[in-house]
């Protein structure tokens, strides 16, 4: 059993109003989290009224609109878009300002006087603060507050799920007091399109290897539903061809069926899948969509299709072969959708942005190859999952798609 610390307060804010309750040390009239992009920054969330107490509101609003930044503190839970520049802007009477680094954020927030402000700072340091209406994930402690944060999603050999007690002092110093391993990273977890902000929970540690395998797969399939819904909405927003939008919506419906199939298999082997908590996010720009698609679609979904096809052919269990045959056909279509999205969206980007996407696709594919390992023998024999050697052969067969040969020399 894991000895979890006792928390007494709910440090959560809603995903749409992540700044609700966040207090600057010197109070402000307006606070907003911006994502820097062209032709103008995107306000991801805000609290208060801009320039509400300015002597000349017109001048204040003009200064706010013209404020641009080239550096910031990336939201580390953003997955493949973590290189995007996010920063705070604020107005305080006639003052218009920005906060563009973690050190500056600490100065801006101190003295930290409540758990919601402490939790916001913890998030910007890269910890997921799991939220619900009943959550108890914060407490007053010593000279500040303790926040319960999570890192990792369990998908990958070096991607352990860990729970941390993070202390935030009144002076905004962030210190990890305790770290507990919740679940070791699975080197052969079922891949797929994982949405931004998603953290894998996984089944209990008492689950059998087969139960855990299918429970993790069910949770990942469930998380893919909102990922495809968001992709469809964003493609429609940016004027993508109707067929791409329809295919993304169809993929979301596929993932609902996959979730039910994997949940049934997980329960058959004694495990209960967790329900993923996927936060809603604002519409992104073309580069952010393309970057996520390159990583989660062109790499992870391509491998998911290969893995499912292998299971459909090699599982000893007849029912598993039948389920995986259906899923393999769908995942192959999802992989094709990812490459079709890339073919439409990437020519619309700058040369520098396309180079960054090529590199991200290369690095993730390389990491996937480097971290394959042999799963439990039951998962190989009964569920048909590929061994490490088989996984490497599968990946080698699609190397030229995962990172185009014309770019390999540039990326080496």
Gyration radius (Cα, Å) is 23 Å
Shape: globular
Report the total helices: 12
The CATH architecture of the largest domain can be named as Up-down Bundle
Characterize the largest beta sheet: strand count, sense, and whether it forms a barrel.
4 strands, antiparallel
**CATH domain fold name of the largest domain:** Ferritin
**Class of secondary structure makeup:** alpha+beta
Which range does the strand content fall in? Answer: 5-15%
Q: Care to count the β-strands?
A: 8
Structure description:
It comes from Pendulispora rubella. This is Ferritin-like domain-containing protein. By secondary structure, this protein is of the alpha+beta class. It has 3 domains: 87 residues, no CATH class; 84 residues, no CATH class; 203 residues, Up-down Bundle (Ferritin), CATH 1.20.1260. Helices cover 46% and strands 14% of the residues. The chain contains 12 helices and 8 strands. The longest helix is centred in the middle third of the chain and has 29 residues. It is globular and about 75 Å long.
Offer a concise description of the structure.
InterPro entries: Ferritin-like, Ferritin-like_SF. The protein is of the alpha+beta class and 412 residues long. It has twelve helices and eight strands.
Set down the secondary structure blueprint.
Layout lengths: L29 E6 L6 E7 L8 H10 L19 E7 L2 E5 L2 H8 L5 H10 L13 E4 L2 E8 L9 E9 L4 E10 L25 H29 L4 H27 L17 H29 L3 H28 L5 H21 L5 H5 L6 H10 L1 H4 L2 H7 L1
Antiparallel strand pairs: 1-2, 1-3, 3-4, 5-6, 6-7, 7-8
